[in-house]
Amino acid sequence: RSDEVKAKLENIAEAQKAYYDVHGEYAGDFTSLKNTILTGERMELMAIGDPYDTTVIMRIDTLYVPVKDKVDFDEGFDVNTMNLIPHSSDDFRIVEKKKIMNEIEVSVFEVSVRNEQWLTDLMEKGYTFDYDKSILKDSLMVGSLSKQISTGNWQ
Question: What is the DSSP letter of 84?
Answer without folding.
Answer: B
